[in-house]
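For consistency, the fold was encoded as tokens, as this record shows:
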Amino acid sequence: MSEFDSLQRFLFEEAPVRGAVVALEDTWRQVLSRHSYPPPVRTLLGELMAAAALLGANLKFDGSLILQMHGTGVLRLVVVECSHDRTLRATAKWDGVPGATQTLQQLLGEGGRFVVTLEPKADKSQAWQGIVALEGDSVAAMLENYMRYSEQLDTRIILAADTGRAAGLLLQRLPDGQGDPDGWNRAQSLAETLSATELLTLEPLQILHRLYHEETVRVFDAESVAFACTCSRERVGEMLKMLGVQEASDILLEQGSIEIGCDFCNQRYVFDEDEVNQLYQLDVMSSARLARH
């Protein structure tokens, strides 16, 4: 693990404020090594990864927090998943060449959507989704508005990403906190002095010292963060079964096998005729040939 691939949580002892700092280097490079992303998409993906790690720090169940953007413009899809054990994976799809000066709303186009999903590992049928309003000119602003209006939790998020690191700082005002009533405003004001360059070059502990060395802050043990993909042959097989016998047999007739790739890690899974028959528990090709005669 890179020394920078970590999540550092902290708590103000004398003010109703909690927070976290995340820095992703090897984790981020693992994502970038899978695809060549245009700069605007790359920056957005990095910011969403940092945001997912920060928001996922408060997961109270075994499972995942998933941030998804769906668009009708140049940007078609962005997905970032953060698990309870601090593993991340991410991918994006786009169509065309995104302009360097396009806003996030322009990249997504008309009808763009931003969705937050909480998915318990034990029972995915209990997954919960929330819609993030596309209000604001950045991922951070949109998530701040979402936390304020949907979760009734005052939140400040600062995000940055370049080719070497994705990083972020999160502050939240504790609803039942005690202590200095002006502590929240002071914590925010100090956070706003943090530059993108500092966020992308300083270690998490250095950032906390730089901002809050005059505050009484309890710093918890750093938690490691890493890239990991949850795809498997079994999961891909289950997805293949959802295609249906007709579509599976058509692909087999045309190609001789079915190949499915994972968008997150680029792993390729190939299923031959016998393996497809085992999935469906029937002779898929016999059914296809009968249907064509």
In short: The radius of gyration is 22 Å. The chain has eleven helices and 14 strands. The chain has a mean pLDDT of 90. Residues 6-227 form a domain with the Hsp33 domain fold (CATH 3.55.30.10).
